[in-house]
Amino acid sequence: MARIIYDALAEIVGKEYVSDRAEELFLYSRDPGTMDPKKPDYVVLPKSVEEVQAILHLANRERIPVVPLGGGLVLSGLSRPLKGGIVLDMKRMNRILDVNEKSRYVVVEAGCSQGMLQAYLNRNYPHLKHSIPDSPPSATIAGNILIHGSGHMSQATGFHSEMLNGLEVVLPTGEVCKIGSCSTTPYWFSRAPLPDLAGLFLGWHGTTGVVTKLAIKLYPNPAKKDVMMFLTENPDYMPDIISKVTGTEMAEDLNVSASQLPDYMEGLQLSLIYVTANTIEEIDFKKRTIRETLRSYINQKEGGFMFVPTIAKGRFIETPLREMTKFADSKKGGGFEYVGAIMPIELFPEAYRKGLEIAAKYETPYSMAVRIIGRAHCMMFAYAYAFNRADDNDRKKAQRALHESNIAALELGGIPWKAEEPAQKLILERMDPETSRLMNRIRAALDPNGIMNPGNWEVK
Amino acid sequence: MYQLKFDENVCASCATHDCLTRCQYIKLDIEQAKEERRKILLGEDSRVLSECATCYACEEYCPYGNHPFYQIVELQEARGIHPAPKPIEKQQVRMLAPEGKMDYRELSAPVIDMCAFGMFEKFSIQGKLFDGVSTISGNDIFCNLMYLHFAKNSVIKERLPKAVDNIRKYYVEKNKLAEVVCFHDECYATFKSWAPAFGVEVPFKPVHFFEFLLREMRERKGEIRQLPMRVAYQRPCSNRLIPETQPLVDELFELVGAERVQRKYDRENALCCGAVIMTHGRDDLAEDIRKRNIDDMKEAGATACVFNCPYCLVALGEAVAQEGMMPLLMSDLCRLALGEQLKGWGE
Ligand SMILES: Cc1cc2nc3c(=O)[nH]c(=O)nc-3n(C[C@H](O)[C@H](O)[C@H](O)COP(=O)(O)OP(=O)(O)OC[C@H]3O[C@@H](n4cnc5c(N)ncnc54)[C@H](O)[C@@H]3O)c2cc1C
Ligand code: SF4
Ligand code: SF4
Questions:
Q1: Do A298 and B85 touch (CB under 8 A)?
Q2: Which residues of chain A make contact with B314, given a CB cutoff of 8 A?
Q3: Which of A305, A301, A299 is nearest to A273 (CA)?
Q4: Which chain A residue's Cα is nearest to B92?
Q5: B69 touches ligand 3 (CB under 6 Å)
Q6: Chain A neighbors of B283, CB-CB under 8 A
Q7: Which fold is adopted by the domain B222-337?
Q8: Which regions of chain B carry the CATH code 1.20.1050?
């Protein structure tokens, strides 16, 4: 039977783009995070919408699970095939199809990576940019949008899913469906004013269909960029500081990092406030406004801006931040995962203290990173754990610390983002039963044979 | 341990109170100066403690070699005054803490002490002037004098004797060095001013970097091409502690044929680069000072600015370059006169 399916897949995508070889199945069974490996039966790399459709028809016929995969960098094991089946690696569908300069959006295929789009815009439309996450540049635009990712413009513009203008999706049963303005006109300018069906695919971890194309918003790319670094030593100040800085409407991105390493930063909170502008006068004005909004902390000597000369700012200004990826590999052996809990700003102090507590319990240096989303409507509060993947005890220890962080986030009133399978269960246990029932009904309607990424968001 | 040598009787009979009346950051007439000095001598609160920009200038202004600034710093710390925001102070104090990683090293003279600024080696210790020199650097030999800006004299007292001892034990004695060249003006100032003021013994001979440059340049006199440059000199805070090194600047300028432009803010009237004041959170003052420095250089007709202190270069260099003047360290100026190419920061 396996041979027949393999041949059928080869027939659809060509022999070079299907594999059931042990070494490939090994690689596709895991991601850099802590979750246990889950082996697929086949790995397939389609090149066209038609090929995706044919694969889904086959999967429905044979009742084989299908797991869409972008860059595979989500870290929480969401594209490991929990119940085996086909990993549908979208990386060959990576074209940039259209840039609309006036309405500022771009249409890409689902396998287009962050790095590809960034390089393309730099070269051809240097006055435009998209909001970039700090993941390595091989992460895909689709993978990031579909999990409600966030990035360098999220303070100003919200979750990356809010920047989505439209989708082309192959439904689990194989029909190609357009969502947003592109369903009705040749343009991909927005999801409004139609019923917003994009929600059927956002945050679902590939359980409701395979996205093949999407349009995202682009933004002006001002020539000047600077970062201001504000240092404090009391987490209780943070909600007010965040509120004050975002209240100026002048920061494009606002991150807070609190880390035990390097040791001179222990106990301190470092707010990285990013400002962009077209002229020196504009950037100076913005920086001064932000500075003065924090004047009371400075005057009381409770907080201050670090003096950082321009030549030392480069590594804080680049997008994505290479330092993040370096940190991710700080234990060597390539293991890294974080609980990114989405929560209201006022929970900062409690969330921070919880992070210290959990890290101390697991005898690991604490490392927290916070990204403010949408003018402080909420924040992504990350508890990060680097570990050595070659050392299974270390991996398991990080896994337990992450699980505890997920529980803590929920107890505080937050929700783990891109939650691992066990954390999805924790969320569902707390969710309004009518909400989870609705999820279940939607899923059953879209995917009658339950082939899409089964084991995720599974509602009992 | 390490008591400041300060003679209150000298102040009692001091007619001018130059230390405070000449301060560029706190405006005091003679009567006010006397009153604030009296309070300081009694260990009482004084506006000077919170308004001091830590420019070190009063150390130079006192005609009697009393140590007014060191005394201010001691009192600031004793009274729990923090010129900089506390988290910044904490981070800075920790960041340059000794690491206890000393080891014996074979060195060949001349030996240049880069202090904690080892990163400057690849830009500044280049070219034939430095053929055959050895460098030493790192937190374990850091002079720590910068903590004067943070009212943390205790940190210097704690760390400097150990740093001095490390230099002696691991480098000087082992290699039978006759002297140690101080790349950073501040190290030399530590050894020649702060250490004797607080009774810390320095068991080797420190040499100012400019003295070293002068020697090397004189040896290569025949190779020097006169530089038709109009150069502004930016004097750093640390140089207020060692005014006796000032003539070295003129001698070097003369040797390379560069004209030291007449600035309003030079010599005893020099202004801080602004970085420390910015770190203190006094941004408006820092910006004002920065602007006054740059405007002054331009008005004096400078085409380049030579910095003594690498930190001042980092702080002010970009603004200097934006105004069309070339930011240089003194060693860069010498290298230009020897016809060498400089390496830029980005390269
Ligand atoms: C060092 C580091 C820093 C990071 N920083 C950030 C950050 O700043 N912001 C942020 O948001 N994330 C960050 N991440 C997390 C993650 O890497 C990104 O969110 C990344 O964009 C995920 O994209 P991906 O292509 O790797 O997705 P994948 O891991 O491939 O997929 C994610 C999920 O989407 C589904 N999926 C993928 N493609 C499709 C498709 N075409 N159709 C349907 N479902 C699909 C998958 O099944 C899976 O459930 C970081 C990760 C690392 C390692
Ligand atoms: S410190 Fe010097 S200048 Fe100041 S009052 Fe005393 S003696 Fe006079
Ligand atoms: S150090 Fe400078 S600012 Fe402070 S009192 Fe002395 S001269 Fe004035």
A1: yes
A2: 309, 311-312
A3: A305
A4: A264
A5: yes
A6: 288, 291, 305
A7: Rossmann fold (3.40.50)
A8: 87-214
| Distance between CA atoms of residues A347 and A368, nearest Å | 14
Give the atom of ligand 2 at the shortest distance from the alpha carbon of B18.
Answer: 3
Of the candidates B193, B178, B159, the one whose C-alpha atom is nearest the C-alpha of residue B67 is B193
Q: Å from B54 to nearest chain A CA? A: 16
Fold designation for A223-417: Vanillyl-alcohol Oxidase; Chain A, domain 3 (3.40.462)
Ligand 3 atom at minimum distance from B72 CA: 5
Q: What are the pLDDT tens digits along chain B (347 aa)? A: 899 999 999 999 999 999 999 999 999 999 999 999 999 999 999 999 999 999 999 999 999 999 999 999 999 999 999 999 999 999 999 999 999 999 999 999 999 999 988 888 988 899 999 999 999 999 999 999 999 999 999 999 999 999 999 999 999 999 999 999 999 999 999 999 999 999 999 999 999 999 999 999 999 999 999 999 999 999 999 999 999 999 999 999 999 999 999 999 999 999 999 999 999 999 999 999 999 999 999 999 999 999 999 999 999 999 999 999 999 999 999 999 999 998 765 54
Query: Fold for domain B87-214?
Result: Glutathione S-transferase Yfyf (Class Pi); Chain A, domain 2 (1.20.1050)
User: Could you give the CA distance from residue A14 to residue A98 in angstroms, rounded to a whole number?
Assistant: 27
Answer yes or no: do B82 and A309 touch at CB < 8 A: no
- Interchain proximity A304–B85, CB inside 8 Å: yes
Q: How many CA atoms lie within 13 A of A447 on its CB side?
A: 27
Strand partners, A18: A44
Q: Do A305 and B278 touch (CB under 8 A)?
A: yes
CATH of A96-220, one of 2.60.40.1180, 3.30.465.10, 3.30.460.80, 1.10.290.10: 3.30.465.10
Among A95, A206, A77, residue whose Cα is nearest residue A147? A206
CA-based nearest distance A302→chain B, Å: 6
Which residues lie closer than 8 Å to B31 by C-beta, 6 or more apart? none
| Statement: residue A239 has pLDDT above 60 | yes
ipTM (interface predicted TM): 0.94
Is the CB of residue A426 less than 8 Å from the CB of residue A406?
yes
Spell out which residues of chain A touch residue B279, defining contact as CB-CB under 8 Å: 304, 306-307
Of the candidates A276, A288, A271, the one whose C-alpha atom is nearest the C-alpha of residue A229 is A271
CB within 8 Å: A307 and B95? no
For the domain A2-89, what is the CATH code? 3.30.43.10
Q: Domain coordinates of chain A in residue numbers?
A: 2-89, 96-220, 223-417
Using a 6 Å cutoff on CB, does residue B14 contact ligand 2?
Answer: yes
A305 sits in which H/E element? strand A303-305
Minimal Cα–Cα distance from B87 to chain A, Å? 5
